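Dear support,

We are seeing what looks like truncated structure output for some complexes. This example has two components. We would appreciate it if you could run it in full and send us the complete token output so we can diff it against ours.
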Amino acid sequence: MSRLVPTAEMTLGPFFPREFAVGASDLAAGANDPATGAQGEVIEITGRVVQADGRPLEHLVVEIWQADAQGRFDNPAFHGWGRAATDAAGIYVFRTIKPGACEGRAPHINFLLLYSGLMRQLQTVMYFDDASDPVLDAVKAGRKRLIATREGERRYRFDIRLRGDGETPFFDDG
Amino acid sequence: MVYGVNDMAYVVPPRDARTQSAGVVAGYAQTASRWPAQPAARRPHGISELTGPRAFSRLKTTSADLAGQGARRALGQLIDVRVSIVDEDGAPVSGALVEIWHCNAAGKYLHPNDANDAPADPNFYGAARLAADERGRIELRTIKPAAYPVPDTDGWWRPPHIHFSVWGRVWLSRLVTQMFFPGEPLNEHDHILNAVPDPAARAGCIARFVPQAGSALVYEHQLVVRGRNASPGLP
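Here is the complete output from our reference environment:
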């Protein structure tokens, strides 16, 4: 069967409607409601996104995809997708349920970045602990930068540097 | 409602790099501050990458008529844009969620980042979020966007274009791109369109004009998201 060529990705540009990035950063809304909610530990994930010169990037779009607390991606009570935009200090914040391990993978959250001047989406992955994991093990340099820092009881910090010293490892899916 | 697709027979093959934009683009200064300098790691794909969001309770859809969002019709040439969303097999992505935004007929976005002195149109907002039908199609009515100068550069004008943000079947199918119009002289000079090396891939980003009678000019366009069914036994 002939295969179509995937459409070329292009930058989000500077004029992405700001309201599109609002209202989708709380994946834990309704969690632990005994009747309908997803069960699990509610956590906050936050971080700063900076460019090569260290300047924080405002209104950068961060999207995430993750499993539920049992490592499932098809839980009707938990939609593992979220979106946030960074503020003037380059900070994004998600509220979610801590994911469980699944199919040989350590607990992790997939990150996708979209921004003006990023010609294609950037993909990276956040981990809670350094553990054996086929995706984490594929990282040649900077592995530790994919491990979030615990800040208090239910809060994790995951900073992202697009380019330069301390650059975050990104993944190439071809 | 399906909240995740666990279809492990689905694969996302590598792309030909010539069909995709370079990361750092001459003439577009921001790219050199933002695109990673280190080579990206190739990773194996499993359930985490080959499932994805398929229902978006937190994202509301809107009207498909951007020309009719105001009290009166927006200024400009009325156009209908018929978009089909397919995967690499050509299979329609039914129900695909699509976000759309573009400037008005004077080249102005209603956005705080837009400092151009072109006039706003009180009847044009310029953003929509739509779900494709079961055939993977959306039909957008709007006005044709104009060209505009990129701020902080000397002489680079963006050709008329419409932005698309699309979710395909799985996490790795996410596509953010721009659609261009045929016959626009600025297409030859745009740093973003021409960052794609392969001419056929660039041509795939330009809509097709469909001559026909009616109240609006008609354009057709296809967006191909990443992914296909695994076909054991085929090369």
